[in-house]
User: Fold these one by one.
Assistant:
Number 1:
Amino acid sequence: MRKPILAVLLITVFVALALPQTPKGTITLHEPDSPFVAFNIWVKAGSQNDPQGKEGLAALTANLLSDSSTRQDSYEQILARLYPMAAGYESSVDKEMTVFTGRTHKDNLAAYYELFRNAILSPAFKEEDFRRVKTQTMNYLKQSRRFSNDEELSKELLFREIYRGTPYEHPEEGYVTSVESITLDDVKNFYARYYTRENVVVGVGGGYDRGYPAKVRKDFDTLAAGKPESVPPPNPKPLTGIKVLIVEKNTQATPISFGYPISLLRSDADFFPMMLANSWLGEHRNSVSHLYQVIRERRGMNYGDYTYIEAYPRGYSTQVPPTNVSRRSQIFEVWIRPVAMTDPGTLHNRTLFAFRAALREIELLVKRGLTKEQFETQQTFLKNYIVNFGATLSRRLAYEIDDHFYGIPEPGFLALARKSIDAMDVGRVNDALRKHLQARNLQAVFITADAQGLKEKLVSGVETPITYAGKQSQSVLEEDKIIAAYPIPVKEEDITIIGINEVFER
Amino acid sequence: MKTLAWCGALLLLALSFAPAALTRADRTFPFDFKRMELSNGLRAYLIPTKASGQIAYITIVRTGAREEYEPGRSGFAHFFEHMMFRGTRKYPDYDAVTTRMGAARNASTSSDVTQYYLVASKDSLEQIIDLESDRFMNLEYSEAAFRTEAGAILGEFSQGRANPMLHLYEKLMDTAFDVHTYEHLTIGFEKDVRAMPEGYEYSIAFHKRYYRPENCVILLTGDFDPKHAEQLIRKYYSPWKRGYVPPEIKPEPPQQAPREAIVEFPGQTLPTVSVAYKGPAWSATDRLSVAAEVLGMVAFGPNSRIYRKLVIQDQKVQALTGDFALNRDPGLLLVLAMVNREEDVPAVLREIENTAEEFQEKPCDPKLLNDTRSAMKYGFLMSLETPQGINFALRDFAVFTGGIEAVDEYYKTLDSITPADVQAAAKKFLVDNGRTTVTLLSAREGK
């Protein structure tokens, strides 16, 4: 019985000694059995680096690189060469980071890597490519962002309101007027300033041959030297009372986003206890979420209700947390999926009922804390559920990049989270949630028809009871009375109304 | 301690796995599997892989919006999917049980299928089989719970209305089909969604009719002992009684003339044109069917002439796709183009129709065909990264044929497709009389 263990240990030591040193500025995740190789090139610049008046420049630069000609190949040739591999690469820009990611089957590694590398290292910066990518962006800003996904829009507006006056204020894609003003020269200048060898980290994962990451790093070392200035972390103004932004739009259902800044990062001691508390209150797109149980499961008011302690852009498209959206400032965020509106007499009653229910549940959680039983169930759930966060090679590699951002030591965030949750107790969680959660000082965003009517209902404090299509239990009906009258302390001057066509115009 | 922590990390991180060889002479699907069939007709496929510690379990019900043939019942398959989480006598709280497992679980419905899936630790295998078999056999919910869930569906329906593409698809299907159930989207017609709270009795009948062993296929993939899994499946699913009642779906009569419609979105949208042709049903062996799928990529994919012209050179179009993936019954071969400026819509439509004619007139470039075959194969192989990925990649084979054996047959047929086959598919399907064109525009003020 001892022999195999020894053998394993010996092999481990041998492998550790035999591995070539990872070159500086390189993150590796060697999985020799994998038939795939994944890349994640991290440029330490994001929308916070956009110059004033040119908001959206970081994103447009990255989009142009991942979607255009290189000095070696025209865009048409690139598409033609990628096509038989069923592979591609893409860029993603968040507040603080830009990443280029791609994955290929090992069979195609050499041909694929050449295209991927050239896209980042030798862009052609052709005027016609720029025109195409900019047009796509403008279409998105003027149309899709305003008119295709009210929920995501409400979240983006929430971040904007909370981070006003900081480098996190503007959405990554920029404003209509700012992107309109961006020229190809702006893009070239941004590239020259931030795409430097000291500012780019190379991530390689999967079934590559030994020594391969060093070759990749060597290629990226051909970037010009330069260390761009650092941007101080944002310092959002603390909120006093409930601030409300209402966007007037012709819509059948009202999404609600609300939240406030929290002083909590992955690297903080309270993070894992809060991860558990948040999971109980509102695990993303999961019926485990307590808010989901209260608003959707028991009352059938909408499709789901979730909460977050880290930025979670494009949550509608994923079950697992987005990667490479690491930030030095985070907010606590609640996402109430669109609540279908009722007939004119009771318009907004359901919306405000859902809002009240969410505020109340947060306050109840702070008051009561989690019971030992609730805690233990959530602990078991989360410990196992986290395994899904690192299901693919590309995601595991992306988590490694994020670990470097936050300075999280080995064995890395996912493994540490499991270990930490396993060792946690309910007292620790309740202490943390009492420190970080509240529902009195926050920003809320509604996107709805008849904005004025919503404003009046909010200010008047009138009760907003709801009715059901079927029989409802007595206990729920009793609770409904409390929710319908739950106070929303909001002042008229703290409510702003804007039209949909003004959203993110500038 | 450091070493121990590392071991933990490796365990956590080593979820991916590799098959021994990715391509064999006669096989594209690189994993061995075991097929089992119970006397009640239930089929299960056991696909062990090296995924350390994880399993993915999917139950495929070969029923979707396609089965909604009765008037007023559109959207019901999807609604019923929601009800499957409402518990049984043995397990009144499905969520609580899966929460304790830490399982990632969900379900979805489309035209041809309703699928229920879980990813969990291998230690939960027996519990999963127990839980899943129980709800498929013994689902029980009150009328009050049913009516409450109808509210959630209305929320889902309403949030979808914010997306212009939904308006386009809704109009397209309704225009292209007269009698077949593909005429409605999975979410259903609005009037039917609003009437759903009244459908309790029907929902019980729906379960009895379609949630039967001979209409379901199970795929179990990942880290498990196949012998043990087989015993468990036999133990828990054997009491399930046969009783599937086939739906009375009317076949769509041949289309006699081109059809056209415009749909206005109450908001701003890029003008988007959809040009859809009546296609064949899916088949693993019918060359014309497989050639039709190839045709979509060859003629309208990112390496096609029209893509280069409209998207890259002329920049009239922001995005162009040719989605010719087939359905269980004859469906649509769909070309979609998002047009930058409304005045270019007629030119874009003309270009799409000209492309259809071009592929009827001459065989396609053999290199492009080869590259397309390669793209389709690598697309499939690239999706086989996780147990869940494997289940999803195999799902359609199970939906169309009731098993997964057809996967290798399909790729063999694909290998044999010639430029002449692609031309034959274009001649047969990309014809004016089979065409439906729907254009999506922003609603005009004051109209």
Note: The radius of gyration of chain B is 23 Å.
Number 2:
Amino acid sequence: MPQYKILTGNYAVAYGVKLSKPQVIAAYPITPQTTIVEKLSEFIEKGELKAKMLRVESEHSAIAAVIGAALAGARTFTATSSQGLLYMHEGVWMASGARLPIVMAIVTRAIFPPWNIWTDHGDLLDQRDTGWIICMVEDNQEALDMIIQAYKIAEDERVLLPVMVGLDSFILSHTATPVEVPDEDIIDSYLPAPGENIHYPKISFENPLTYFNLVFPDNYMEFRYQIQEAMNRAKRVVMEADMKYYKLVGRRYGGLIETYRCTDANIVVVSMGALTGDVKEAVDRLRDEGYNVGALKLRFIRPFPEEELKKELLHKKLVIVIDRAISFGKGGILYTEISSALYEGRFREIPVIRGYVTGLGGRDITVDDVITMVERLITRLESGTLTHGWEWFKLRKEVVE
Amino acid sequence: MLLEIRIHGRGGQGVVTAAQLLVEAAYYEGLWGQAIPFFGAERRGAPVVAYARISDKPIRIHSQIYSPDIVIVFDERLIKLADVYKGLRENGLLIVNTTKMTKETIQISKKGKVRLAYTPATQIALDLKLIVAGWPVINTAMLGAFAKATKLISINSIERAIKNNWSGKIGELNAKAARLAYEKTVLYGG
């Protein structure tokens, strides 16, 4: 029987990792990630997880260590946040370039300077172009489930790409809720045995190989093409992983996106991570007031769910995108991505797309805030003054003026 | 039903553990919960807070708590040091660790239409020799007071949550503290 435990988001990740049975774990401590690897060390010490824990001197070495272990055919795990992820950046590209199915948890945290340990999606979205599959979870249960699904997706021979699973700093990482921990034998039947049936050339003493060679201009582009093709195939694999998990465990998340009360909605609020829960709550209250609003949770940023978004959003009147990060000199990152997807090949009959940049560095976004965001835009939409674009929300203007 | 709770204590008194035990005990009652720490510059002895939500449905909200229904105070001196009434709802409940409510607290609470409950948690811990690193352990006792004052969670579930987290004598002693605090909880108004 599956067990319920009261787990923080970080412990939920650790339980997901334990059930996935990685053979090598390497990490360097950073708030708010640290308790993930602390818990994993505890599992190893108690003999509940038979993995090698490598204590390294930096995040750059942490990713290098799991790359080495993955090249030797091991199932691997690492986790980090913010500065640690930025310090790792070179290795992040190495992992995807070498097509290694590494799984990494990212506890999203604002980037320095100024110092801030609270949630912000800037660190995760900074990895957008690295060739990693990138997803973001809404609650602790999804954190546990997605770590397990991440291995299923990464190791699939049609994919062979590393996966990042993002969860919001403190809001999830240190907040404890009841979480269902699946049975070990169920997950054993879901995931292949670790280190077996490896779908890439593994390095061993019997079979020495060289990765990361010099590649001339007549071959480099083809490596990039293959990653793009793998990303395209991953869309289907994500769905399959979700469905197979549902059949065995009883929970599913809808694949690349999740929709909530969208079918008859003419306004849809798009968000990512823990905030989506508050958005759903706001949707219920707005519905009670007679507004036809729905919520769309962006679960994967890469591969980007273009087709799914078009299907769900193109016929709506207004699409509101809430960003917890900014691309300086451009604007909300999800807003930009979603606008590009909806505009592609279309010049008429698309909804008004409106972005909010808010909640940076852990600024709290409440259900009332979401309701305000929606109502404000509805007023402008009805008066005919609303155009495409983005704006700040909950910015303390008195501080900057 | 959604109840929001704020716990005031001092760094080292176990406010976060109390919030987590509360969520676990609520789970045994078939309720959903969320234990939320607040991270700032915590130091041993400095005023700290933790939060919890309890609901009959899975909780989707992740924002901070601004208008708690219940405030629990681990150290009565914090009533003057920290703004324990901040945001506390009308007909809300204030649960204090003390042997006697001060007249001032009773007056302020009456004015703010806040119900009061108290229990001598420190005294109970001292009597049981439930002391860690020189400090009486009062967080488990305060959960007993919560059970009595709210009737939302049974004392049995509180004891079960405590014993599930600490085996042997430590679990027994903490559970006993919760039970004694439950029995000694005094309710004011409502």
Note: The domain at 2-188 of chain B is CATH 3.40.920.10 (Pyruvate-ferredoxin Oxidoreductase; domain 3).
